[in-house]
Every structure is written in C-alpha cells, then in structure tokens.
Amino acid sequence: MIRMDRIRTVAIIAVALSVSSVSAKADCAPDQHQSFICGEGKAAVRVFPDTISPSRKLAFGWRTSEGLPSGQAEPPGDVEDVLVKLSDGAVLGRLGGSYWASGEMRANRYDLIAAWSPDSRAVVEVANSRWDTDAFRFYSVGDAGLVSLDLHDLVEQTVRAKAAKKVEKGRVFRVREDLPVKLEADGRLTFTAILFIPKSEQPALGFHVELMIKTVKSAAAARVISVQPAKLPN
Questions:
Q1: Rg of the chain taking only CA atoms, in angstroms
Q2: 206 in the Ramachandran plot: left (φ > 0), alpha (ψ -120 to 50) or beta?
Q3: Which of 8, 86, 117, 125 sees the fewest Cβ atoms within 10 Å?
Q4: How many Å apart are CA 111 and CA 34, to the nearest integer?
Q5: Quick count: other Cβ atoms within 10 Å of Cβ 193?
Q6: Is residue 213 included in any domain, yes or no?
Q7: Are residues 174 and 131 in the same domain?
Q8: Average pLDDT in the chain
Q9: The pTM is what?
Q10: How far does the chain reach from its first CA to its final CA, in angstroms?
Q11: Would the pLDDT of 81 be above 90?
C-alpha cells in the first residue's frame, strides 16, 4: 500500500566544477571543451562534465563502437553511455542511456542527468529522449563492484495506478529531468514524474514520488514510499 505521506521539500545546491578541480592522470586528459577524454582509439570515453560525482572521482561518459568523432562530426558508431573512474579511465559499467555531447554538438532532444548521493557511493541516471524516459536506473559503487537496479517499471506502474481514473489513452510516462532529482545518503530518492500526451494541449499530470533504495552486498531493492499529485511549473 502506498502511504500518501507529505513529501519534504528538497533544495538542490548546484556546485560549479572546473576542469582543474579534478585530478586527471595519464589515462584521463582534459580536452578543449571543459571535459576529459579517457583512453585512446575505439575505447576512448568522453566525460560529461556536469555528471562528475561530489568526490570528483567518478562521472558518466560516452563512447562509440568506432571511437569518438572529431570536430563537428556526429558519432561514427553506436553510442554507449558508461560510468567511468577519473583516476585511471576505467569503465565500471554500462549505463542505460545513449546520450552524447562532443562540446561542439550534442544529441538532439536528448537529456541526461546524474543524481549522486553525497558520499558518491550511489547515483541515479535519468536519460530522456524527446518524449520518453529511456533509462531511469540506480547504481551503487562499492567493494562488490557496480550494482544496478532498474527503477523505470516500478515507478511507471505506481504512477499509472495512482492516476488510473484520470489517464486518457496515449499518455506517456516521463521523469522530469528539469526538476530536482535528489538521492540522499540513506537511499531516499525524490523526484517528479509526469503522464502526458505528446503534441497535445492537454495538461500533464504531475506527481512527486519518493522511493527508498537499499543495497546489500551485490543486490539492490527499491520500494515506493509516497506518490502525491504535484502542481507543475509553467
């Protein structure tokens, strides 16, 4: 049963990170676009600078099956988003999205955010394309390696159940990447989800959602704590 508890308002403090603030070793070198390139050749990964963890040791990045493009060229092969270790460029695991940005170009109508826990031991990925949330996943970085948990289906089913009497046919589920997504040290995750009809003047239905995520050794589990109707910004 979903408890309709009041969701505490969470303020997100944006911390500006400069390239010089991250200790880049030989395998991760700064590029000319305030980012890093880790590795060489077809294995090279380009870091998304706005996804760097609070510890400044981890970040999201992207690579392709044919290596990174040069100049204003688009990716030459299939795009893969990854979690990368900045100290040595090691790829810890593959992410769910396929967003890319070269510093001069970026994937059109795609968005990616990384919501890190304060201790940098966990992160939530929100990867959105034009209409859909393509990936909504939790990752825990620990001694047992990278633990991954897909949150998408759990949240979508819960939100649709909450809005069952209001949902017209054709409404699409999406996690709002432009509103705060907050992951706390204890595994509490808060965010805003919507159900909307693409290219329609019908207003979106908004929901404040709160989850609790727990990681034990090599496994993670999530439960919904609260789902509340939300007034969306204009």
A1: 18
A2: beta
A3: 8
A4: 18
A5: 25
A6: yes
A7: yes
A8: 87
A9: 0.86
A10: 32
A11: yes
Residues 162-208 pLDDT 10s: 998 777 778 999 999 999 999 999 999 999 999 999 988 889 999 99
Stated as kind and residue range, the H or E segment containing 177 is none
Rounded Cα distance, 155 and 153, in Å: 5
Same domain, 54 and 34: yes
Q: In terms of DSSP H, where are the helices of the chain?
A: 152-162
pLDDT band at 229 (very low <50, low <70, confident <90, very high): very high
Contacts of 45 (CB under 8 A, 6+ apart): 37, 38, 39, 61, 62, 63, 82, 84, 89, 91
55 is in which domain, residue-wise?
A: 18-106
Minimal CA–CA distance to 174: which of 198, 201, 200? 198
Are the CB atoms for 209 and 191 separated by under 8 Å? yes
Sequence-distant (6+) residues with CB within 8 A of 65 are: 42, 77, 78, 80
**CA torsion 178→44→142→121, rounded to 10°?**
-30
Looking up tokens 């890319």, which residue turns up? 100
Asked which of 91, 106, 121 is the last residue of a domain, the reply is: 106
What's the number of domains the chain is made of?
2
